[in-house]
Amino acid sequence: MAISKEQVQHVAQLARLALTEKEVEQFTTQLNDILHFAEKLNELNTENVEPTSHVLPLANVLREDEVRPSIPRDKALANAPEKRDGMFRVPAVFEE
């Protein structure tokens, strides 16, 4: 499998990237090098290798979602440029 310059240009167009001809050539070469390397990995004998999702034995370190003491509201709002009714006041982000 190989990536063509036309495919790189197509993906760039979808991503709205303006690539020069030199960049198209460069990315085509790099992507083909990556694919070639991935094909080399298929040559490995993995018959006795257990499938894994990560190379390190990581575990989730999430804590329980529980209410914990925090700074008082007045202290949190002390340096707010604008506040109203005990909340931060920020400029509108969406148009009405």
TrEMBL record:
The record, for Pfam families, names: GatC
InterPro entries noted in UniProt: Asp/Glu-ADT_sf_sub_c (IPR036113), GatC (IPR003837)
Which EC number(s) does the record attach to this protein?
A: 6.3.5.-
| Catalysis: reaction(s) | L-aspartyl-tRNA(Asn) + L-glutamine + ATP + H2O = L-asparaginyl-tRNA(Asn) + L-glutamate + ADP + phosphate + 2 H(+); L-glutamyl-tRNA(Gln) + L-glutamine + ATP + H2O = L-glutaminyl-tRNA(Gln) + L-glutamate + ADP + phosphate + H(+)
- The entry's keywords: ATP-binding, Ligase, Nucleotide-binding, Protein biosynthesis
Q: How does it assemble?
A: Heterotrimer of A, B and C subunits.
Query: What is the purpose of this protein?
Result: Allows the formation of correctly charged Asn-tRNA(Asn) or Gln-tRNA(Gln) through the transamidation of misacylated Asp-tRNA(Asn) or Glu-tRNA(Gln) in organisms which lack either or both of asparaginyl-tRNA or glutaminyl-tRNA synthetases. The reaction takes place in the presence of glutamine and ATP through an activated phospho-Asp-tRNA(Asn) or phospho-Glu-tRNA(Gln).
Q: Which family does it belong to?
A: Belongs to the GatC family.
Which HAMAP family does the UniProt entry name for this protein? Answer: GatC
Q: What is this protein called?
A: Aspartyl/glutamyl-tRNA(Asn/Gln) amidotransferase subunit C
Source organism of the structure: Polycladomyces subterraneus
- Organism phylogeny: Bacteria, Bacillati, Bacillota, Bacilli, Bacillales
